[in-house]
Records
---
Amino acid sequence: MALLATGALGADGERPTTIEEFMTVESPTRVIAHRGFSGRAPENTLLAIREAIAIGAEMVEIDVTMTADGHVILLHDETLDRTTSGTGPPTDHTLEEIRELDAGAWFSTVFAGEKIPTLSEALQTVKGRILINIEIKPEAVDHGVVPKIASLIAEHEMHNQVIVSSFSPEALLRMKIADPEVITATLFNKDLHTGRDPLEIVLEVGSRGFNISARRLTAAMIERCHKHGIPIAVYTVNEPDEMRRLIELGVDAVFTDHPGLMLEVRAEAENRGRAGALGLF
Ligand code: G3P
Ligand code: MG
């Protein structure tokens, strides 16, 4: 866990290659590209994933939901309206219809023509290149998304490169039933989890990690998780001062729309740590 910043990581080729390594090795605060490199390219597209790989992030996070005809696709919102040329819930549309939509022009005309990817395409894109966090959107759970995701992870033989998370404890429990080998992380849900012990929250769904928003994080939560070997990842961290604060607090990973910036801030913190250890200031 990132209790101490030791050694320089993050350059291509030095990324952790398994979830075990990502979660358990004592390491600098890990850099997770939130919805892909979403500061540079339209969120949850293959382009944003490729940009996350290129910049040297150590994991990419994506959000997944379902189409009407049972395909798992990348989308954050409950509807298509904000990030595509379509409207309404994705579960009202077939994959063929969703393939017609533009998922890039809303971000910039430069990205017009970018499509909503399937989870299968996303897994193919990251395999052997970067670890991936698949976040299951709660509204997709009753549409049968969980066993589909489990099948895709198995089909692509990526158990050691994927972590599945959700705000929905039901999604994580169903994943344990669908495939107990899939590693999961619990997203802190303010309505269900406020005032509760983070360790208990994680253990009740068999999770290995705890993900929480920077606004709700407390030092006590970090201490409690670390005492029991649970890594803690914090979202969505885009400001350098906030990045520095979280590195100092010893969080294990941050989700950021700007992974390049986070890599720079982390490298500076490591250099300061080394200079301090050598008595240079
Ligand atoms: O998984 C961390 C973060 O992505 C959770 O929030 O709304 O950006 O999916 P959201
Ligand atoms: Mg997400």
---
Amino acid sequence: MTNNKDDQQRLDGRTKMFINKKMSYALRHNPQKYGLKLDKYGYVDLHQFLDAMNRVHHFRPRLTEMTIREIMHGAKKQRFKIKNGQICALYGHSIPGIIKHPEKVPPKVLSHGTARRFLPSIEKRGLLPMGRQYVHLSADVDTAEAVGKRRDQHPAILKFNAAAAHKDGVKFYYANDQVWLVDQVAPKYLSR
Ligand code: HQG
């Protein structure tokens, strides 16, 4: 690990966002492009990850563990986790092999923020993972609102009766304190 305080101070918001995006891309969507292989929990060796990121993107100054930790701590969303010299994305995966997440008992109610234009389809088919491995749910309405605003200025916030679904045997996976994952959500558990 390089102690690179000066390098960090030079990192502006745009650079941090760029690094964040590339980290998400590598750890959620296309590790292959970086010559990386995630384990079944989505983890990869941190040093291999840093080498790959630097090789592909030619970061100057070089991307270090300290910079990544700084970005992670400063971010509003907890997207990544570093543990035992490995790093993973906590949610959002779209790679072919299913990534396993810890199963947990959910809060009684979860929320899902979405675009109003998707509602007719969601009312009919329920929530589906679409391009990702899992449906993503928010622990609170503010988070759901922020998620929905990515696609609609006035998003629809759906209430998911997680307690009823859990009782019926639906499995819930924990990503972080704000984000929960399920395989899909039947329309009967959803309300406005
Ligand atoms: C919608 C970001 C039509 C669903 C966010 C959503 C989150 C349907 C979109 C995380 C549907 C999928 C995930 C159906 C679901 N018919 N539309 N039957 N079922 N949809 O991006 O939940 O910033 O894959 O409502 O903040 O929006 O990247 O999922 O609008 O936490 O860290 O299909 O990604 O996090 O969109 O977002 P997404 P999401 P980051």
